Amino acid sequence: MNSNTKAVRLFLWRLTAVHMITYFAMGLLFMYLFNYRNLFESGTLGLIMKPIDSPWVPLGLGLQLFRGLIFGIVLWPFKSVFLFKKNGWLKLWLLFIGLSILSTFGPAIGSIDGMIYTTIPVKQQLIFLPELVIQSFLLSFFTYYWYQKPKKIFNILSIILVVLIVLMSVAGFLAASNLIN
């Protein structure tokens, strides 16, 4: 395996692992802080969001593996802009806020188009912004930090946490589908 292939794999792993871990942590925290169960089952959000006890909700955590890989593939050509420059994490974070949160290509909840074109009240859309902003900050900062201070312990912890997230995701899916007790 040549060094470029190894560098690509390392980048994909790190970005995907950090995404999955931060997505899981922030999702769990904000699910309880803002009572997503009630929020997703009432009003306009009840029409478009799956209920918390849907089998797809826990499975979505494990499926973030694919989203992390997409982030990695898309960001790979630009890695030198944010990985190896002072405050590179800030550039990456602003990129996520600008393109993944506020200016999506569709009317996503919390985006400018979401606030303009959907019937979801702006107040309900703003509820999700703290989670999105904090998770994107953590993703940007920890990806940058991992490159600035690579340590074996980060590799070990990331493997353990990603495996646990995937296993919990599958177990949650099976339990919500009544395939296991």
| Strands, count | 0
**Total separate domains:** 1
Distance between the termini: 44 Å
The total of helices stands at: 10
SSE series: HHHHHHHHHH
Q: Residue-averaged pLDDT, rounded?
A: 95
Strand content: under 5%
Detail the poorly predicted runs: none
The structure class reads mainly alpha
Shape type:
globular
Helix content: over 70%
Radius of gyration: 17 Å
Structure report:
The radius of gyration is 17 Å and the shape is globular. It has one domain (3-176). The termini are far apart. It is built from 10 helices and no strands. It is an all-alpha fold and 181 residues long. The relative contact order is 0.17. Helix 1 packs antiparallel against helix 4 (56-75), helix 1 (3-33) runs antiparallel to helix 9 and helix 4 (56-75) packs antiparallel against helix 10 (152-176). Helices cover 75% and strands 0% of the residues.
Briefly, what is this?
The chain is an all-alpha fold and 181 residues long. The protein has helices at residues 3-33, 36-41, 45-48, 56-75, 79-82, 88-102, 112-117, 122-126, 129-148, 152-176. Helix 1 packs antiparallel against helix 9 (129-148).
Secondary structure elements and pairings:
Blueprint lengths: L2 H31 L2 H6 L3 H4 L7 H20 L3 H4 L5 H15 L9 H6 L4 H5 L2 H20 L3 H25 L5
Helix pairs in contact: 1-4, 1-9, 1-10, 4-10, 6-9
